[in-house]
Amino acid sequence: MPLTPEQAAEIDAQRAQTPTRRAVAPALEAILYEPIPVLDHGFVRPMDYMGTDDSIVQAARVSYGRGTKRVSEDRGLIRYLMRHRHSTPFEMCEIKYHVKLPIFVARQWIRHRTANVNEYSARYSVLDNEFYIPAPEHLAAQSRGNRQGRAAVLTGDEAQRVYALLREDAARTYRHYTEMLNEGAEGDPADPARQGLARELARMNLTLNIYTQWYWKIDLHNLFHFLSLRADPNAQYEIRAYAEAMLETVKRWVPLAYEAFLEYRLGAALLSATGLKVVRRLLAGEALTQAESGLSPREWRELLALLGRPAED
Amino acid sequence: MPLTPEQAAEIDAQRAQTPTRRAVAPALEAILYEPIPVLDHGFVRPMDYMGTDDSIVQAARVSYGRGTKRVSEDRGLIRYLMRHRHSTPFEMCEIKYHVKLPIFVARQWIRHRTANVNEYSARYSVLDNEFYIPAPEHLAAQSRGNRQGRAAVLTGDEAQRVYALLREDAARTYRHYTEMLNEGAEGDPADPARQGLARELARMNLTLNIYTQWYWKIDLHNLFHFLSLRADPNAQYEIRAYAEAMLETVKRWVPLAYEAFLEYRLGAALLSATGLKVVRRLLAGEALTQAESGLSPREWRELLALLGRPAED
Amino acid sequence: MPLTPEQAAEIDAQRAQTPTRRAVAPALEAILYEPIPVLDHGFVRPMDYMGTDDSIVQAARVSYGRGTKRVSEDRGLIRYLMRHRHSTPFEMCEIKYHVKLPIFVARQWIRHRTANVNEYSARYSVLDNEFYIPAPEHLAAQSRGNRQGRAAVLTGDEAQRVYALLREDAARTYRHYTEMLNEGAEGDPADPARQGLARELARMNLTLNIYTQWYWKIDLHNLFHFLSLRADPNAQYEIRAYAEAMLETVKRWVPLAYEAFLEYRLGAALLSATGLKVVRRLLAGEALTQAESGLSPREWRELLALLGRPAED
Amino acid sequence: MPLTPEQAAEIDAQRAQTPTRRAVAPALEAILYEPIPVLDHGFVRPMDYMGTDDSIVQAARVSYGRGTKRVSEDRGLIRYLMRHRHSTPFEMCEIKYHVKLPIFVARQWIRHRTANVNEYSARYSVLDNEFYIPAPEHLAAQSRGNRQGRAAVLTGDEAQRVYALLREDAARTYRHYTEMLNEGAEGDPADPARQGLARELARMNLTLNIYTQWYWKIDLHNLFHFLSLRADPNAQYEIRAYAEAMLETVKRWVPLAYEAFLEYRLGAALLSATGLKVVRRLLAGEALTQAESGLSPREWRELLALLGRPAED
Questions:
Q1: I want to staple C113 with a disulfide (CB 3.0 to 4.6 A). Which of A39, A113, A212, D169 is the partner?
Q2: Residues paired with B39 in a beta bridge
Q3: Long-range contacts, stretch C263-266, CB < 8 angstroms, 24+ apart
C-alpha cells in the first residue's frame, strides 16, 4: 500500500503553487505532501492545514476584544492562553495528515475521538503485503515490575526466534489471505474453480502488524492533547514514533504555539495538593520523610525524582 | 461592534495573495473576508477554509481504495457519498466564519455542539450599542395554531407600539449599562466619585437583541447538518437568514457537494415506514382514506401535501 | 476471555435488588447483566442504564414548557420528536453494554465516536485463545457486482479449505504469541532461559478475528444513529448481528422510542428532491421512463424497488 | 418559572422507591430531586445518575484485565487513574441535573460542549418574571488591574443606584414583553384589538439576568473538567456558585473519585518546564532572582505565591 499512481498524480497536481488569501505557514508548505518515514514501512504526511499562529491571536482578540490592546505581543498572548487553559483559540487551527501505520497502532490512535478519519477499507479493497517488524533496538522484553513497560531488548537465540515467528506468521497469513480471496487480473478469479471468499471476511486472517493507512484531521487543541499523551515516555514506542514525527510538523506550522506547548504541557509537571504542600515544606527547610509527607511511597519516589533529589529511602 | 481598526488592518494584510500548495477554492477566495449583510446590523464573513470538492473525493478514494477506479467521475462519487450517508469524506473540509448576530440568535446557534467557537466576551470588554429591530415585514404575530409559528405581520398602531417598546427598552438598558460601568477615556472612571460596576455584572442589564460576534469553525458534514435544520422553513426567520447567507458561501466553496446537499438533504423528503406503504398503495391505484392509512390525521395531511395532492378530507 | 471470576462475583453482587428513586425500566432490569450470545464466542450484555421513555417526555416538556399541555399523550409526543428530528430529549437516556467481539468488528464499531469505551488492553494483559470462525451459512463469497457485498456461500472443497486456513492460522499465531510471551505461572517465565517479548509487541502476531471485549456507553440518540447504520441490510453481517442483539435490549428499555425508531428511521425511506418529483408525477398518472426521470439508472432502479414496482427497464 | 404542577407531580411519583439491580449511590439517592438553592432564584437538582465509584473500578479492570489483581484496593486504583489521566473509566458514570439559572450564566455554561442539554424554550412558552439581582456582598466593582476581575463591593449611593437600575429595567422590559405578547387566559388575546407579537420575537426584549432552566446531562470525566474550570477562584462568582452546589452532589455520588479530584485536579498545581527548573534550583539552595529565573515577572510572582514564599521583588 505505497502511494497509488492516482494519489501520486493528485499530489503532483497539488504541489503546484496557487495564490491564496488565506494565512499561510511557509515552513509547513515547504514539506507539504512529503512523507516523513516512521517505523519500517510507515509515514506521516502533512496534507492540508488551516490557520497559523496569527489565527490563534486573532481568535483570542475577538474573545477578549478591545481589552487586549495592551497584550500587544503575540508570543506573550499565546503563552498566556496555553498557561491558563484558554483552549478555544487553538481550535481555530486545523491540520490533516495522511498516515500509514500498523493496525495495532491504529487501534490505540483511534481512541482519540475528537478527530476526523477516513481509513483505507479492507472491506472494499485488498491490503498490501507490508507488516511491521521491530528493529533490533526495539525488540523489547516485558518489564516485570511495570505491566505496561518494556525491559532490555531481546538478543541472541530468543531474538532470532521472535523474528522468525513474526516474519513467517505475517507471510503465511498474508499468503492465505490472497489464496482465500482468489482474485486474479481484471477482477477475474485466479482459480476459475473457486468463487473466492468475500474481502470483508478474508481480512480477518491478517495479523495486527499489517499496515493500514488513513487521513486524519484534527484541530490544534486536540492535537496537543493527543501529542501530550502519545509523545510521553510512557506511551508505547511505536505510537510515540508517530507523535514525534508530527511534533516536527507542528513546529513548522505554528512555532509560537509549539513553544508554549513544550513549556506548559509536554515539559510541565503536575503537583498534587499534597505534593504541593510537601514542596512548600521542603523549601522552608523542613527535613521530611515519606511517612510524614502524606504521600504514598510511590508518589513520594515520583516527587523526589521530579524535583531532582536523590531518593533517600 | 463593527470591525475594529485592528481587525480591518489584519484583513487588509490577509487580502494580499500568497502562494500555497494547498487546494484552493477560487470562487470562495473571491469573497474571502467580505461581510455578507444579515438582518439590520449583522453579517457572516467567510474567514478561512480547508479543502475543496477534490478533498472529499480524495478521502473517499483512500477509504475505498483501488476499488473505486470505476467510479471515476467526481460528481457521481460525491452524490453517491451523500445519498448513502458516507459522512466522513465531507469531514475533511473545514470552514471558519466571523459572524455578528443578536444574542437570542446566538443562543439557538450554539446548541450545535460540533463546532469551535470564540465569542466576544462582555466579561472583558464593553459591548457596542447595536440592537436587532425586526424589519416591518418580519414583525410577525404569534400563530394561534402552531406554537412555534408566526402568523401575519403586525400593522398599524400595534406595530408602532411594538417598535417603540423595542427601541426604547434597548436604548434605556444600554444607557444604564454604560452608566453602571462608569468607564471614561483611557480607563479612568467617567465619574470619579463612583467605582463602576464590574463588566461581568453590568452586562446582565442588556436585552437579548443586542449584537455579539464570534468566530465559528466547523467541518462540512456538520455544517450541512446545521444548514439542514436552520435553512429549513420551520426555523426561526432570524437564524434562517444567517443559514441562507452561509449557503451562498458553500456553493462557492464546494459546488458539487452543495448540489448533492440540495438533492439529498435540503430538498429531500423522509417517508415513514407507514407513509411508504401508503405511497405504494396509492401508486397501485388504491383509493385510500386517512382512516385506512394507518397515519394520524396530521401525518396524513403532511403526506398529501408532500405528494402534491389536494387534501381531500 | 469469558467472564473472569472477579467479574462474575461483581455481577452476583449487583444482581441483588436495591431500592432506588430513579426511573426504572422493568423489562430491561429482567435481563440486566445477562449475556446475549452473538456469533460463535461473542456477546452483548446490558450493564447499566439511565432514563426511560418517561425521561424523554420529561425533557421534551422542559423544552416546550407549559405549551405542551395539549400534547398530553406520551406516545404521540415521542413519535413527534422522532419525526421532526428533535434529538435532544433522546439524549437524556444512556445505556452501557459489555460486548465481546472480534477485533475486525471492533474496528468498524469504534468509528462511531460519540460513545465512551473501555477496552480490554492487550498491552497490559494476555488475550484468550478465542477466534471468530464464520458459521457455514455466513462463509460468503465476494460479490462481483457490489464491491462491499457478499454473494452465495462457499461450499465443498473451497469451504473446507477456507475453514482449514482460518483455524490453523489462528491457532498457530496464538501458539507463537504465547511462546514469545514466555509467561509461566505466578508471573515467572515459562522458560527461564528466555526473557519473553513485551506484551505490547507480542500481540501484533494475532489475527484480526481474535476476540476482544469492552464496555461501551452511549446515549439513546447516538445509539439510534449507530443502529440505523449497523442494523441496515448493507452493514456487514458480523456487526449487524450485534446491532440486532442490541435492538432487543432497546425494545425492553424504551418501548415507545423503539417503536418510533422503527417507524421513522429504520423502516423509513429518503426520497431525493428529484425522486420526490418522480413520485408526484407517477401519482398523477404520468408514464415515466428513466430517461425522463432525471434520475441516474441506478437511482431509478432503487426508486422503483422502493415503491414496489416491477423494474421496467 | 418555579416547578410546574406537572413537574411536581412527576417528582412525587419518582420519589417512590423501586427495586433496581443497578449500582446505587445511597447518599445521592437521599437528595435526589431536591433543589439545592443557588443565587436568588436559581437551583441545581440532581435528577438521575448512572454508575458509582464501583463502576469506575469495574471499567478500569476490564481495561487492565487480569493484570490488576494486585491493585486490589479501589481507592488506590481510582487515585492512580486520576493521577495518570486515565480518563475513560470516569466516563462510565453519568449524571443529569435540572438547573435554573440566569441567561448570562447559561451562556458561559453552554460553552462546555460535551454535555446533553434540554432548555426551556421561550420560542414555545412564556418566561416567568424572575431576574437575578446580586446580593449586596456580590455587587462588585470592576477591577482596574485585572480585566476579568472584581474589586471591592459597591456601597452607598452607587450601590443604591445600581440596584434601582437593575430592578427597574428588569421589571419594565418584562412588563413590555407581556404587553407585546398580549396573551390572555385560555390562549385568547388579552386585548382583542391586538394580535400579539410572536413569542420567538417578544423574548428579545428581556434582559440577560432573566432566569431560564434546563436539564443538563454529562459524564463524570467531563463534569470534572467543567468543575475544574468553574469552581476555580478565577471563574465568575455567579457560575462558581452553581459549580460549588454540584461539587456537593458529586461528593455524595462518587466519594472516592471526588477525593481524587480534589487531590489531583482542583487542589493541584501545574509547574511549567521553566518553573520546575526554578523549584529544583531553589531546593538546591540557590538564591534566585526573577531575572535569573527565565520566568516573566508575572509568572515569577505567581510561582512564588504558589510556593508560599514572600514576594521579594
A1: A113
A2: none
A3: C263/B272, C263/B273, C263/B274, C263/C79, C263/C82, C264/B270, C264/B272, C264/B273, C264/C79, C264/C82, C264/C83, C265/C82, C265/C224, C265/C228, C266/B273, C266/C227, C266/C228, C266/C231, C266/C232
Catalytic residue status for A230: yes
Q: How far apart are CA B14 and CA B26, in angstroms?
A: 15
Q: Do D152 and B195 touch (CB under 8 A)?
A: yes
* CA nearest to C304 within chain B: B280
Q: Using CA coordinates, name the residue in chain B closest to D107.
A: B107
Cβ contact (<8 Å) for D195 and B158? yes
User: Which of D15, D18, D126 lies nearest to residue C24, judging by beta carbons?
Assistant: D18
Q: What is the pTM of this model?
A: 0.95
Which residues numbered 212-241 in B keep a CB inside 8 Å of some CB on D?
Answer: 236
B-facing residues of D in 55-114 (CB < 8 A) are 102-104, 106-107, 110-111, 113-114
**CB-based burial, B269-308: b 16+ in 10 Å, e otherwise:** bebbebbbbbbeebeeeeebebeebbbeeebbebbbebbe
pLDDT digits (tens, 9 = 90+) for D155-172: 999 999 999 999 999 999
In chain A, what residues touch B32 (CB-CB under 8 Å)? 21-22
B86: its cell numbers: 458516507
User: Element (H or E) spanning D162, and its range?
Assistant: helix D156-181
H/E stretch holding C99: strand C94-102
Cβ neighbours of residue A117 closer than 8 Å, sequence gap 6 or more: A110, A214, A215, A216, A217, B88, C111
Mean of all residue pLDDT scores within chain C: 92
What are the CA-CA distances from residue C235 to residues A214, A276, C270, D306 (Å)? 21, 54, 18, 56
A311 interfaces chain D, CB cutoff of 8 Å: no
C67 closest CB neighbour out of B147, B274, B306: B147
Three-point CA angle D296, D300, D303, nearest 5°: 140
A208 Cβ contact partners less than 8 Å away, ≥ 6 residues apart? A102, A103, A104, A107, C103, C203, C204, C205, C206, C207, C208
Q: Which residue has the cell 482460518?
A: C166
Residues of A in contact with B59 (CB under 8 A): 118, 215
pLDDT per position in chain A (313 positions), as tens?
567 676 677 667 666 789 999 999 999 999 999 999 999 999 999 999 999 999 999 999 887 765 445 445 899 999 999 999 999 999 999 999 999 999 999 999 999 989 999 999 999 899 999 999 999 999 999 987 766 678 899 999 999 999 999 999 999 999 999 999 999 887 789 999 999 999 999 999 999 999 999 999 999 999 999 999 999 998 999 999 999 999 999 999 999 999 999 999 999 999 999 999 999 999 999 989 999 999 999 999 999 999 998 765 4
Give the pLDDT confidence of D53-73 residue by residue, as tens digits: 999 999 998 877 654 454 458
Domains in chain B (CATH in brackets) are: 1-123+212-268 (3.30.1360.170), 133-208 (no CATH), 273-306 (no CATH)
> Nearest CB to D92: which of C51, C88, C118?
C118
Annotated active-site residue in C199, C203, C230, C240: C230
CB contact under 8 A, C162 and A180: yes
Judged by DSSP in three states, A280 sits in helix
Closest CA to C58 of C26, C29, C90: C90
Q: Mean of the pLDDT values across residues C131-137?
A: 97
Nearest to B241 by CA among B130, B94, B135, B114: B135
Which residues in chain B have their CB less than 8 angstroms from residue D166's CB?
Answer: 204-205
Q: Is residue A45 within 8 Å of A246, Cβ to Cβ?
A: no
